[in-house]
Every structure is written in structure tokens, then in C-alpha cells.
Specification:
The complex is a heterodimer.
Chain A (H helix, E strand, L loop, with lengths): L1 H23 L18 E5 L9 E6 L4 E3 L2 H6 L7 E7 L2 E6 L4 E6 L5 E5 L5 E8 L2 E6 L4 E6 L4 E7 L7 E4 L2 E6 L5 E6 L4 E7 L4 E6 L5 E5 L14 E7 L2 E8 L8 E5 L5 E6 L11 E6 L11 E2 L5 E6 L6 E5 L6 E7 L5 E9 L1 E6 L1
Antiparallel strand pairs in A: 1-2, 1-28, 2-3, 4-5, 5-6, 6-7, 8-9, 9-10, 10-11, 12-13, 13-14, 14-15, 16-17, 17-18, 18-19, 20-21, 21-22, 22-23, 24-25, 25-26, 26-27
Chain B lengths: L1 H22 L8 H4 L1 H7 L5 E3 L2 H6 L5 H8 L3 E4 L6 E4 L8 E5 L2 E2 L20 E6 L13 E6 L9 E9 L3 E12 L2 E12 L4 E4 L6 E4 L5 E13 L4 E15 L11 E19 L3 E22 L2 E25 L3 E18 L4 E19 L4 E12 L2 E2 L3 E9 L6 E12 L3 H5 L11 E14 L5 E22 L5 E23 L3 E16 L20 E11 L2 E10 L18 E14 L2 E10 L18 E9 L1
Parallel strand pairs in B: 4-7
Antiparallel strand pairs in B: 1-6, 2-3, 4-5, 6-7, 8-9, 8-32, 9-10, 10-13, 11-12, 13-14, 14-15, 15-16, 16-17, 17-18, 18-19, 19-20, 20-21, 20-22, 22-23, 23-24, 24-25, 25-26, 26-27, 27-28, 28-29, 29-30, 30-31, 31-32
The chains are: A mainly beta, B mainly beta.
């Protein structure tokens, strides 16, 4: 009796030990096989991920096939993109993914998503604009400089003093125009040949996005700031600026303080503007949604092309080929978000599930 | 200011009395506490609580309360690593749903609602008690998950005692502890000092950058300093007062997530706390009256600067100062041995100033909290007793609805120590000052969070006075919380607080403890297991997939087990903590960012010896024995196997 009890205990102890050892032995993950996708066309969706969670990711969507691949970077490379995937741009067949709170830009092969290089040691990068094969500008939220990088060598080659944090950037001829978004109301003009700040212009508070139209004018969308902050709030505005001479041509003020528009984009022919008109707080007004506005329009659109309804639209993308509209909903910001695809006239075509906080789009 | 003056006066009184007491002939004190013990027991009937064994506290003197609770209690601790922020989740609720009382005074931050358990050194406390769920209502409202009571205990011996502990561990971690204590006649005191510092620059395997290398943790060093004074004084058989003073200063650098490869940043936090509480207890023939008054002054400074070509560019420089006054009066009246009537009244006042010197935003806020409760405990027979409690709070000119609690305790089989307890409670948790006033996003229209909790537990205890003691308990609970406050983005970066969530929490708590003593040999096993299912119950957004899903960062399974052996002068402890899988998405969808379950093993070997007629002890510890690579929080590096040596002297 006692012997069998002892045996039982010994058996149990052996089992326990086995469990302990198996748990203790470290499991090494082997990289998954690299998948090949359609090399012609597709849309990259930057899923920001939660701030400080480090769970930003990249989604690839093929609209022809209707196929969605989430976590393509992680799956191809076996390590995560990083913390807050802010934006992406393609240059010379390579993808440049700006990872804001990781202070880096991940360069990838846009066909199989493999990691090529990490451009590190940035402060708080937001957007990248390519000037030439050896020069690109990177805006930065928490640095008073714009960083100059060389895409041929992936190295930081210099910087341009602005004095404030910078947000979106657009190139017109030999100059780039940059918005100073956070607690700022400036649009800066930088000469791409000399890498010097040459001029600036004051617009409505907090210009968050900028595009160039077919007349070589730039359009700047200001959200107006946030009520109660010392910087104060102003009504939001859409400003059209002539580049030569550098002066404001016209300014469209949004009617209500409640309005906070963002994500200004333009189609390929550069004649139609798109943006998200949102309102503060969870109470969304009738005017909320994706708006479309011809660059020669005399006033702001009276109603949205795609009403937001009870959703909260977050990111916007316009397909340069057919002006398809992609708009995202981050739902509760801690679950996989959704992206809706509409035709240029606002007809719903598709709805796809992507990853945490889909924010920016990049068209391949 | 007035509170400070009162403290000075009290302190003076103590010292004066102490000097006087020296000359008074020894007179034995029959502590009235013994007399009221029977009544106290009646008050604890039908309450579901966990007392952390004093021996476990004694074995963890160099740890923080977060380590102690993680290893030896059913609560889940969410920690950012050694020395760093550690918050608690009791029964799957939020960190602010656990109320912490130190010597009867609440120490939750009125600004954040929570307590950083890494800032409570076990060395500064003598007693830890967990009140599960609604069982906490008799001490105050707001503990939707439960409350943690930490107390200082007087030692009424006449010997002047000094204890030193010095530790040295991996990553240049050093701790020093000093305790002076004495108790004579009517007066008893102890002074405890504490210092801890660490470079905390452990090596970890970084699988988040594509470099696949071992890296040293950056910017995680910290320094903690604390001082504590506890005094107790008995005027006479019926009156006693106590005073507790606790000051602490903590400087911590905050490391970035593993994927960070930026230009460098300086992120840091400083916590300053001054807490004092005084208590006057008066015992009568059939009553007890207890007045507690306290004052706390806490500050939390947060700073973030990023490296730029021009030097550091400051992004946040936030300073918060909070002053709070706490007053509590409790009156207990017993009618025979069977009925106990209790009334509790409390009044708290908070002044908070929060300002960011970079963003130039902040808020000033004051809050008044008044609360009252009455309760009746009655023993119907030797085997059945019950209680009934009613509480109401009046906060910032608003009455909360009445909070009831009822409970019953039943000894199922005559003369068998098998006890069944059950209670049901309605409770409210007030929004924090940040929830109300933070700019931007604070919402002054918030309602308090409302919770209903039901509990049933069975406990079996055996061998109270024998060589082998055994106790086990199993309990089950459900809890329904509505108007749960969460911060969610409105549009464009600014998050807002709102009464959104409806949460259903239910689970099982199991504990087992067995100890044995022989002539030369001593053993013990202590273990806990919890099954926690906490789910979101309401779809508040279109396309929301979080309904019916486990809340983020709450493990469904958590277990710990500790084996404790002593042979002659040798001690050996082996402890294991299992933390189950945790989701980081509200929808629990499979992503590559689900946190895997892990088991950590710690081992300790110690020897006691005599040194110049004094007691001494040396201990050698290994933490994370199997060098497990794990993440407690998404992409936060954690140390592998590490070591510590401890030397203790008692004079």
C-alpha cells in the first residue's frame, strides 16, 4: 500500500519535473516562409497600433482579388514593425514605413514585404517626402528639425532647422511646403536645393494636412485646435495658397467651432479635394463624413459625400488610379479596425477587416 | 496646515508621556482588544477575506507589496518590471477598483484612482488583508474588485530592538533597511528606514528590432527612499492613541518599448508621498469608539524629452500635487454577545493641482467626500450569523444611491470547521479627478461606476493547535459593473472619458495552505488559483467585436504555489507564479500581439546563525530560475535569471 503510494508520488514528481523542464526550455521561433503577392497593384494600410504598446502593423489589400493580408511585415520578417505606424511612402520600388514612437523608418521590399533596412535615430518621425534619388525629407513632431536622409544609403545626411515640430509635407517644383501642426499655425517653405527654410505663412490654427493641386497651388486643412487648451481654439479652415508668389489666395472657414476636419487628400488629376469632416466628441453631426470638393468650388461642400453616421472615421486614402475612396474606422481603438472602400462617387464597394487603428494608406 | 500642527502636538504629547512613563512603576495593561475580540469575530462573519500569513510577510521583507501579492495572493499584478509601476487587478476589475487602506486611511490617488503597489515596501507593513468584492463595503465604498488593508502592528515587549538588512543583487541593485523598535509600559514605537537603488540594466534578447541581439535595458534605473514612524500609546485601560508617519521619495527613469530605435529620450517620473494618520480608540463596557484622522501630500512629476540635433526637446513636464485630509469615525455597540451595531462616518477632502509646464495645460480641482454607513451583525446561533449594512456617499454635492450589503455565514456540519459564507453587495466607485477634469478629454458629467457583487465561499480549517495545520477555501463570485468609465478617442488624437462599458466579472478563487512543525523540521505549502472571466457586455459601437470577450490584460488563469522548508537553522523557499494568456485587443482576435502564458520560478536558501550573541541570517536568492523570456506587458523587456544576497542582523 505504502509502496504503491510512493510510486504514485514518484510518478507525479517525475511528471511535474517534466512539465517544469518543458516550460523552462525556450522555444525559438523560425521565420515563416515568405509569401509572394500580386506584383502589380495593391494597397498598404498602416495600422498605427496603440501608443506605447508596440503593436503597429502593416496590411496589404488587393482590390482586384479582394484579398486582405494582415501583419504582412511581422509574418515576412518575424519581428514587429514597432510603436505607432504613422505613414508609408513608396520610392524606387521600396516601401518606407515611418514608425513614429519607435523613432525609425523601416524600408521594405514592396513585393514580398521583407525588411531591407532600418533608418534609426530619428526623434518622432511623421511623414517622408522624396526630393531626389539621394534626398528625402522626414518631418518630426518632437524635433525642431526636418531630417534629411539619403535613400541610396539609408543614412541621415543632415537636417533643416524649422524651430517647431512639423507634420505633413508636399513638393511643388523646387520647394517643399510643410505644416506645423501641434500648437502651431504655420506653413513653412523650404528650398530643396539649399535645404533652407526660406519663408512661412500663417494659416488657421493647427494645419494637419497639405496637398498640391493642378494649378500648382497648395491646400492646407486646419483643424482649429482644441477647446480649453492655452493655445486656444479657432474655427477650422481650408486654405488655398499660391506658391508663386507665396500668399494666401482664398480661405474657407468651417461654420462651427464643433467641426474638426482632417486628412486632406487630392485625386491623381489634382482637381478634386477629399477630406474627413468630423466633429469634436462622440456626438457626430450631420456634416460628418468624407467630403469631396472640386478645387475650383466657390464654397465648402454643404454635405458629405459619404456620411459617417454613427461611426467615427479615422483615416482616409484616395486611389490615384480610379479615385476609389478608402476610409477607416478604428472602432474602439483596441480591436481590429475596418476599412471601407467606395467609388469616387460614394458608392460602397467593399468592407475589410484590418488591424489595430488603421490610419494611413499607401498605394502601390 | 492645521493637520500638521495637530500632528506636532500629538507627537509632543507622545514624547512627554514617554519620558513620564519611565518613572511610573510598571503596571500591566490588560489590553481591551482581547476583550473585544469576541465581538470583532462577530464583525468578521460572512466576510470573504484573505489574510496574508505573517510568516510570508516576514520572508518577503525586502520585496514590494506587488511582489508579495503576486506570489502569495489571488490578485493579479500588472507590472512593468523591477521597481517600476505595478497595478493590481482584483477579480478582473480595473486598478482603480481596488481600494487600499494604510492603517485605516485610504491611499488611492484621487487623481488616478489607483495605487502603485511597487511603492509600498513590505518592510513598512506588518499585516496585509484582502477583502474580496463586496466584503470591502464596511470599510468604505469604491472597491468594486476588493480592498487591500495594510497595517502596522505594535510589539509590546520591553526590549529595544534594532534590525538591519542589507541586500546586493544583479544589475547593481542594493537595498538597505533599518528598524528600531521598543515598547515599554504604555508606549511603543518603531522607526523604519529604507533605501533601494538599481541600475536595472539587465540583458534581454531583443526580438522586436530585427537585429536579433542581446541588449542592455536602457533608462530603467531607479532610486527609492522611505522613512516610517509608528507610535502607540495607552492612556489607560480604555483609551489608546496611535500615530503613523510615512514619507517616501522615488525617482525612476522609464524605459522605452523594445522596438524603440530612435535618437534617445529621457523619460522619468518622481513620486513624493507624505502620509500621516492618527487614531484614537476608546473602549467601553459594551462599546468601542474609533476616531481616525489623516493627511496626505503626494506629488507625481512626469517628464519626457527627446534628443534632437539641438539637444533635448522637452515634450512633457507635468507636475501634480495633491493634498488630502481624511477623517473617519466608527462606533460599535454590542448588545449581549450576539448583536453588534456599527456606525461609520467619514469625511475626506482633496485639493489637486495638475499642470504641464510644456503643454501649459492642467487643472485645479477640489473634492469633498462624505459617507456614512450603519450595520448590524447578529449571531442567531453558534452556527449561523448574518449581517446587514447600508451605506451612502455624498460626493461633490451629489448623493449616490444607497449601497446595501447583506451576508450570512453558516457552519454546515456541527463541530466540523467547514464554513459557508455568502454575501451580496451594491457599490459605487467615483470617477477620478483625471476622469473629470483632465484637459483635453476629462468629462465633468461622469456618473459613478456602479457594481453589484455576489459571493459564495466554503472554507475548511483543520488542526488549529496541532503540529499539522491545514486550511483550504473555494469561492465563487459574480459581479456586474455598469457605467464603467473608459477613455476612448473622439476624433483626432484626443481621448475622452465616458461612462460606457458594462462588464460582467465572474470567477473562482481557490486557496490551500498546509503547514507542519517538527522538532527540527518545519514545512509549509501555500497556494492560490484564480479563474477570472471578465467580459464586456455591451456593444456601444457599430462593428464592435468586443462583446462577450475578456478585458485586455486580465489573465483567465492565475496560480501561485510556494513551498517552504526549514531544517534546524536552514531555510529553503521555492515559489512559482503562473500567469495565463492575456489579450491585448478587446475583441480577443488572434493577432501577433497576444501575450503568452508564463511561469516564473524563484528560489531562496538561507541560514540563521548567531553573531556576538545576536541573531543573524544570510540568504541567497535566485529569481526567474529557468531564465524564462517573457512579457508581462506588451513589448516591455523583462530580466532573465538574476541573483540576490541578503544579510540580516538583529541586535
Amino acid at each position: 500500500m505504502l509502496l504503491s503510494e510512493n510510486k504514485k508520488i514518484r510518478k507525479y514528481l517525475c511528471l511535474m519535473l517534466l512539465i517544469l523542464i518543458s516550460l523552462a526550455s525556450c522555444k525559438k521561433e523560425s521565420p515563416e516562409p515568405i509569401q509572394q503577392y500580386d506584383e502589380d497593384k495593391g494597397i498598404f494600410i498602416c495600422n498605427e497600433g496603440n501608443f506605447t504598446y508596440g503593436n503597429g502593423s502593416l496590411t496589404f489589400y488587393d482590390p482586384a482579388e479582394g484579398s486582405v493580408s494582415n501583419q504582412v511585415f511581422y509574418n515576412a520578417n518575424n519581428f514587429p514593425l514597432g510603436d505607432v505606424v504613422q505613414s508609408m511612402a513608396i520610392y524606387d520600388n521600396k516601401g518606407y514605413i515611418v514608425v513614429n514612437n519607435s523613432g525609425k523608418i523601416m524600408v521594405i521590399n514592396i513585393d514580398n514585404f521583407t525588411h531591407i533596412y532600418t533608418i534609426s535615430n530619428l526623434t518622432s518621425p511623421r511623414y517622408i517626402e522624396f526630393i531626389s534619388s539621394t534626398k528625402a525629407y522626414v518631418t518630426d513632431l518632437y524635433s525642431p528639425y526636418i531630417t534629411i536622409i539619403d535613400p541610396a544609403t539609408y543614412t541621415i545626411t543632415g537636417n533643416i532647422y524649422i524651430g517647431n515640430g512639423t507634420e505633413q509635407i508636399v513638393k511643388v517644383g523646387d520647394n517643399v511646403y510643410v505644416t506645423g501642426w501641434s500648437h502651431n499655425n504655420k506653413v513653412y517653405k523650404i528650398n530643396c536645393n539649399t535645404d533652407l527654410l526660406t519663408d512661412s505663412i500663417t494659416v488657421a490654427k493647427q494645419p494637419n494636412s497639405i496637398v498640391k493641386d493642378k494649378h500648382n497651388r497648395i491646400w492646407v486643412l486646419s483643424d482649429g485646435g482644441c477647446q480649453g487648451t492655452p493655445y486656444g481654439q479657432d474655427t477650422a479652415a481650408l486654405t488655398c495658397i499660391n506658391t508663386c508668389p507665396f500668399e494666401i489666395e482664398k480661405k474657407f472657414r468651417f461654420p462651427s467651432m464643433e467641426t474638426s476636419p482632417s486628412e486632406l487628400l487630392i485625386n491623381l488629376t489634382e482637381d478634386t479635394l477629399f477630406f474627413i469632416n468630423g466633429s469634436w466628441g462622440s456626438g457626430t453631426g450631420n456634416q460628418s463624413g468624407v467630403c469631396r470638393m472640386p478645387v475650383d468650388a466657390a464654397e465648402l461642400p454643404s454635405e458629405p459625400l459619404i456620411p459617417e453616421g454613427i461611426r467615427l472615421f479615422y483615416g482616409l486614402g484616395i486611389d490615384p488610379e480610379n479615385s476609389d475612396i478608402y476610409v477607416s474606422d478604428a472602432i474602439d481603438y483596441v480591436q481590429k479596425g475596418l476599412v471601407f472602400r467606395y467609388t469616387a462617387s460614394g458608392e460602397k464597394k467593399d468592407s475589410i477587416k484590418v488591424d489595430i487603428i488603421p490610419g494611413a494608406f499607401c498605394f502601390k | 496646515m492645521i493637520a500638521l500642527k495637530v500632528i506636532y502636538i500629538l507627537l509632543f504629547v507622545f514624547i512627554a508621556n514617554y519620558i513620564c512613563a519611565q518613572s511610573i512603576a510598571d503596571s500591566t495593561f490588560i489590553l481591551k482588544e482581547v476583550e473585544v475580540k469576541a465581538k470583532k469575530q462577530l464583525k468578521e462573519k460572512a466576510i470573504i477575506k484573505t489574510n496574508i500569513d505573517t510568516s510570508l510577510i516576514q520572508e518577503s521583507l525586502d520585496a514590494s507589496l506587488s511582489n508579495l501579492l503576486s506570489k502569495h495572493s489571488p490578485v493579479f499584478i500588472k507590472t512593468y518590471g523591477q521597481g517600476a509601476l505595478a497595478t493590481v487587478s482584483f477579480r478582473g476589475t480595473a486598478a482603480s477598483h481596488t481600494q487600499v487602506e494604510w492603517n485605516g486611511m485610504n491611499i488611492n490617488s484621487p487623481m488616478l484612482g489607483q495605487v502603485d503597489f511597487s511603492l509600498i515596501p513590505v518592510y513598512f507593513i506588518d499585516q496585509v488583508e484582502l477583502l474580496h468584492g463586496g466584503s470591502s463595503l464596511q470599510f468604505g465604498s469604491g472597491a468594486l474588485g476588493g480592498s487591500v488593508q495594510v497595517n502596522s502592528e505594535p510589539i509590546w515587549d520591553t526590549i529595544f530592538k534594532t534590525t538591519f538588512i542589507q541586500t546586493a543583487g544583479s544589475y547593481a541593485t542594493y537595498q538597505s533597511f533599518v528598524k528600531l523598535s521598543a515598547g515599554k509600559n504604555k508606549f511603543c514605537y518603531d522607526i523604519r528606514l529604507y533605501h533601494e537603488q538599481s541600475e536595472n540594466d539587465f540583458l534581454f534578447y531583443n526580438n522586436a528590432t530585427g537585429l536579433w541581439n542581446y541588449e542592455r535595458q536602457q533608462n530603467a534605473d531607479y532610486q527609492k527612499n522611505g522613512a516610517l514612524l509608528n507610535t502607540w500609546y495607552h492612556f489607560n485601560n480604555n483609551n489608546s492613541i496611535s500615530l503613523n508617519l510615512w514619507g517616501q521619495l522615488t525617482d525612476r527613469n522609464l524605459p522605452p518599448v523594445m522596438s524603440y530605435q530612435g535618437s534617445g529620450r529621457n523619460e522619468k517620473q518622481q513620486d513624493k508621498e507624505l502620509r500621516m494618520t492618527g487614531k484614537w480608540k476608546k473602549y467601553g463596557k459594551n462599546y468601542k469608539s474609533e476616531l481616525t484622522t489623516g493627511y496626505t501630500k503626494t506629488s507625481l512629476d512626469y517628464y519626457l524629452a527627446n534628443e534632437t540635433p539641438l539637444g533635448l526637446f522637452v515634450n512633457y513636464d507635468s507636475k501634480s500635487n495633491i493634498k488630502s485630509c481624511y477623517h473617519k469615525y466608527m462606533f460599535e455597540r454590542s448588545f449581549g454577545n450576539k448583536t453588534l451595531f456599527t456606525a461609520l462616518l467619514n469625511y475626506n477632502y482633496h485639493i489637486a493641482t495638475i499642470f504641464d509646464h510644456k503643454e501649459l495645460t492642467g487643472y485645479d480641482a477640489t473634492r469633498y467626500e462624505t459617507g456614512a454607513s450603519i450595520s448590524v451583525h447578529h449571531g442567531f446561533s453558534e452556527r449561523i450569523s448574518a449581517y446587514c449594512l447600508l451605506r451612502d456617499d455624498y460626493v461633490d454635492n451629489d448623493f449616490t444611491p444607497l449601497m446595501p450589503s447583506v451576508g450570512i455565514e453558516y457552519q454546515a456540519i456541527k463541530k466540523t470547521p467547514l464554513i459557508i459564507r455568502s454575501n451580496f453587495t451594491g457599490n459605487y466607485h467615483q470617477p477620478t479627478l483625471n476622469d473629470l477634469y483632465w484637459l483635453p478629454g476629462g468629462n465633468s458629467e461622469l456618473r459613478p461606476e456602479q457594481g453589484y457583487t455576489g459571493d459564495i465561499a466554503v472554507e475548511y480549517k483543520m488542526g488549529k493547535d496541532s503540529m499539522i495545520r491545514f486550511s483550504t477555501s473555494i469561492g465563487s463570485y459574480f459581479s456586474h459593473i455598469t457605467d464603467w468609465i473608459i477613455w476612448r478617442p473622439g476624433e483626432f488624437r484626443y481621448w475622452q472619458a465616458d461612462n460606457i462599458k458594462q462588464v460582467y466579472a465572474r470567477g473562482i478563487e481557490y486557496s490551500l495552505s498546509a503547514t507542519g512543525t517538527g522538532i527540527k523540521f518545519k514545512w509549509g505549502i501555500h497556494s492560490n488559483y484564480t479563474y477570472t472571466k471578465t467580459t464586456n457586455e455591451e456593444e456601444t459601437l457599430p462593428g464592435d467585436n468586443s462583446v462577450g470577450k475578456q478585458l485586455i490584460y486580465i489573465p483567465v488563469h492565475k496560480a501561485n504555489i510556494m513551498l517552504d522548508l526549514g531544517y534546524r537553522k536552514f531555510v529553503f523557499h521555492y515559489s512559482t507564479v503562473y500567469t495565463g494568456e492575456r489579450f491585448t485587443t478587446s475583441s480577443n482576435e488572434p493577432t501577433r500581439h497576444t501575450l503568452q502564458a508564463y511561469i516564473l520560478h524563484d528560489v531562496l536558501l538561507g541560514k540563521q546563525f548567531g553573531l556576538f550573541k545576536n541573531k543573524a541570517e544570510i540568504q541567497f536568492k535566485i529569481n526567474n530560475l529557468f531564465n524564462i523570456n517573457y512579457q508581462a506587458i506588451l513589448w516591455r523587456a523583462m530580466p532573465g535569471r538574476n541573483y540576490k544576497i541578503l544579510i540580516k542582523f538583529q541586535l
